[in-house]
Amino acid sequence: METGVEDIGYGRQFEGWYDRLIPDDRVTAEAVRGLRDRHPAPGAGTLEFGVGTGRIALPLSRSVGPVTGVDSSPEMLAALRAKLPDGGDVTPVHGDMRTYTSKSRYALVYAVCATLSCLTTPEDQRRAVRRAADLLAPGGRLVLETHNKPAILALHEGRARTTYFVPYPEPGTGVQTHSTLLDGDLWQCSHILYQSDGTTRVGTELTRLTTPDDIDGYARAAGLEPESRMSRWDGTPYSEGAPLFMCSYVRA
Ligand SMILES: C[S@@+](CC[C@H](N)C(=O)[O-])C[C@H]1O[C@@H](n2cnc3c(N)ncnc32)[C@H](O)[C@@H]1O
């Protein structure tokens, strides 16, 4: 069915096992706390770009009220809908963060877990930040979390390809990632999940690496003021060695 929403196929790669890629509940809880603590006005509206399976939006909605979650993947949104009966106030919206618009304005707009990096050109990343900025209420805040380019380059130790394995607590399980740096700051990762029943799943994603300065540039062009940079949601200051960074912006 033609929906008019361009989809990169993320949900088809990770359908049924996306949540297993981030099995540590403490990682999710820290992000949810970090967003809740940075919400300028809980109850005055929250919007997530790239809501996925609702990993963050569902628990966040329990403390800040309704969350609107935009995603271009029908499969990810279906996984989110399936979780709604267990609690959480999230409205799934099939849309593209490069073009999404609405009459509503939100006190907090956020995109986490490297959703912005799913856009593989600077132009598209800039467009999404502009959309987010336009959807903020006066005094609202934009919070972004994405891959940290210098740390990913360091991980490769000068090589274009590398492989690493993250064991999970359950014996015989974990995720092996085959990581390739491509031209144009593109980063391709193929993840192999080893499951306890002996089966595997494979998912490939292509993202575009950025620095906080890149994102600050997009935000300033969209009329936002850079506010903070962190390496962790607990407020740890930004460092080049951290795999992810979070940054926040305010709308005057
Ligand atoms: C890494 S997942 C993050 C999901 C969720 N935010 C989380 O933290 O678990 C990235 C999500 O962004 C979505 N996405 C990618 N490109 C998009 C676009 N142009 N517009 C809206 N969503 C997009 C994907 O479908 C996927 O669900």
TrEMBL record:
The keyword ATP-binding does not apply. Keywords: Methyltransferase, Transferase. One of its GO terms (molecular function) is methyltransferase activity. The keyword Oxidoreductase does not apply. Pfam families: Methyltransf_25. SUPFAM superfamilies: S-adenosyl-L-methionine-dependent methyltransferases. Residues 47-140 form the Methyltransferase domain. GO terms for biological process: methylation. PANTHER family: METHYLTRANSFERASE, METHYLTRANSFERASE DOMAIN-CONTAINING PROTEIN. This is Methyltransferase. It comes from Streptomyces fumanus.
